[in-house]
Amino acid sequence: MYGAARQGRLVLRTLRSIPSASLSSPLVRTLPSNTRIVPTQSIRVSLFSSTSKYGQQHAAAEDMGAEDLSHVHREFSKFSELADAGILDQRIVNTLSNRMGIQTMTEVQRMTINECLDGSDVVAQARTGTGKTLAFLTPIVQRLLREPNFNTRRASIGDTRALIISPTRELAEQIADEARKIVSGTGVQVQTAVGGTQKKYHLKLMQRMGCHILVGTPGRVKDLVSDPDSGVSLDNIQTFVLDEADRLLDIGFAPDIEEIQSYMPPREMKDRQTLMFSATMPRTVVGLVKQTMKPDFKFVRTIDPNEAATHESVPQKVVYLPGMENQLPVIAEIAYKAVQAHKADPTNNPPFKAIVFLSTINEVKMAHEVLRNMREPGTKGGLFAPHPLAPCKIYEMSSRLTQAERTRNSQAFRHAESAILVSSDVAARGMDFPNVTHVIQVGPPKKLEDYIHRIGRTGRAGKPGEGWLILQDDERNEFRQLVRDIHAHNISEDTTLETATLDMTQPTQLSAETGKIMQMVESGIRAVPMGDKAKAYTSILASLVQSSVRRPKQAVVDMANNLAKFGYGLERPPRVSPTLASKLGFSGVRGLEYGGGDFEGSGSGSGSGSSGFRGGNDRSGSGFRGNGRRDSFGSNRGSFDRGGRGQSDRRQDFDRDSRFNRRGDSDARGDQGSRW
Q1: What are phi and psi of 315, to 5 degrees?
Q2: Could you report the per-residue pLDDT of 69-106, keeping only the tens digit for each?
Q3: Looking at the chain, which terminus has fewer C-beta neighbours within 10 angstroms, N or C?
Q4: Measured CA distances, 521 to 100, 326, 371, 503, 537 (Å)
Q5: How confident is the model at residue 547 (pLDDT cuts 50, 70, 90)?
Q6: What is the pTM of this model?
């Protein structure tokens, strides 16, 4: 996949150099619990780094140096057949068929379950949404149930037989939920260890209920096993699973994985099985394979090299914008048109369900607040008025949220028929969200894998989907490099979105529909507190500096300031601390407002012509006030209109809006007017 076959010889040579190890030993571990075994060779971070921006990173293929089982014929296709053959416990099959409604195995399950049951180390490459989770959970539970002394005593905290590591809290909890369904009525205890939750609470659960299968994120699992007072032990570990292995390495968990393994018995003393599952097999995984897998591990690829991958089969469109201030209007236009298309023709247009990816958590919060607070122009009722995208719900997903909020939002989005999930990369990997019709990525991806796994959220299980990539006009070279690296021929430039062509710094004539969309965005912008706008502004400054597009520092500040003025409706850009400005290399650059983080003074003056920042909360309009000359998105907004109206009509709109602002903040949000 992605040139894997051509590069597989590199992996073959590397893997042949792996020293052989004892696969089984009668020796019993005699070291005390929580004793670290320091490996003679550490997992170096350099092994996991890419040599190029998008990289030619896919090195694993059928000649990976392991036994390739990708083309071995499997006689079983149903779980009941495994039970009839004595391979799988009947209780598992009953749960799968009766409670979960699963009778037929997917390709990855059919090709890996039997191999995993015999204790072999397995590396499996399979796309997301193909049943990878069940492929490793089923063998784990089966191995537990066939232990002769299982269930003869109550489970304890030191009985952990399987450890499953996931890169995100959401994916870990999703795996644990699936595991609890499978083990229903068997006595197998499943516990979680994830960050963002109360460590003591989960520890007490493990102490009270015991633990056979532990599912967690690297940091929290490391904290537990390294704490001598926790009682959590890996002395009895039988199976070690790394799900989304490439992602674990990509986001820097290599040291944590190494430390976790140091608390497991050495293989010379106690054998264990290691399973790796992932949608891609980049060269970064080779270093981890060397450190964790047995020399005779087996490789299973359930992806036909002649079959198009998700990013090669899902139609994708790229949109180039004249400025960052166009980003939110473009997202709103995509959503509005898709919602209207479903209402007009539900047979041929499925309910709109999208994931919008942004680079930073502050941008995520900003976009979520804008989309959530959008209202139709001219409607009464303020926030209680119908949402223009109804019945589409708006959810947020980022590391800024508590674990409870993230779990609640992911569950709500998963079960929603029509919804938008505004997300950072936390939702890009492994999470199973059904019926996602659109993936919208704002800005160029940092790595090839980021783009592939984001697109992988849509077009799953044969369902329709489409991808959108929203870029700035000076990011065309980044896009061309991306297209070359992913070998995709189904990406085309889209020129149908009117909001993408607007020069929002200049007077413009708008169509009625685009004027309506811009007013919807305006109403959402109005509701965002000044502090959130300031944080988004600062994050964008830093993100532009760190971008692979080399821009002059003055151009970076100008881009961010145009966003603040014409996108956020601010009279003046938010203040930036001198220390941060110096770190970002902005010394001597014009256009920055310096301060100590006090947002209150970011907008100067008062009255109808000012930005109206009161107490840093900007809920009254923040530059959207309209006085005939200066209005939302900066200056001369009176020249924008929906078409077919005279200048006198526009002046009347501005005058009416000014009267609203003089009456007070609460009235200002009740009527969005028709000033476009």
Answers
A1: -65, 135
A2: 545 545 688 999 988 888 899 999 999 988 899 999 98
A3: N
A4: 42, 10, 7, 16, 17
A5: confident
A6: 0.62
Do residues 15 and 72 make contact, with C-beta atoms less than 8 angstroms apart? Answer: no
If 0-12 CB within 10 Å is exposed, 13-18 middle and 19+ buried, where does residue 545 land? middle
- For residues 461 and 514, give the distance between their C-alpha atoms in angstroms, rounded to a whole number: 35
Contact call for residues 626 and 527 (beta carbons, < 8 A)? no
Nearest partner of 122 among 380, 52, 131, 132, judged by Cα: 132
* Tokens 């009895």 found at: 236
Residue 193 sits at φ, ψ, to 5 deg, of -140, 90
Whose tokens are 């499943």? That residue is 190
- In order of their start, the domains of the chain are 4-301 (3.40.50.300), 310-668 (3.40.50.300)
Which backbone phi and psi does 639 adopt, to 5 degrees? -80, -15
Cα–chain center distance at 255 = 22
Phi, psi of 654 (to 5 degrees): -65, -40
Query: Maximum Cα–Cα distance for the chain, whole Å?
Result: 93
The pair of three-digit structure tokens given for residue 310, joined into one six-digit string = 């998700």
**pLDDT of 626-645, one tens digit each?**
333 333 443 333 334 434 33
Instruction: Please tell me the distance from the alpha carbon of residue 250 to that of residue 45, in angstroms, as a whole number.
Output: 10
Residues 6 or more apart from 101 whose CB is under 8 A from it? none
Whose CA is closest to 626, among 640, 618, 614, 638?
Answer: 638
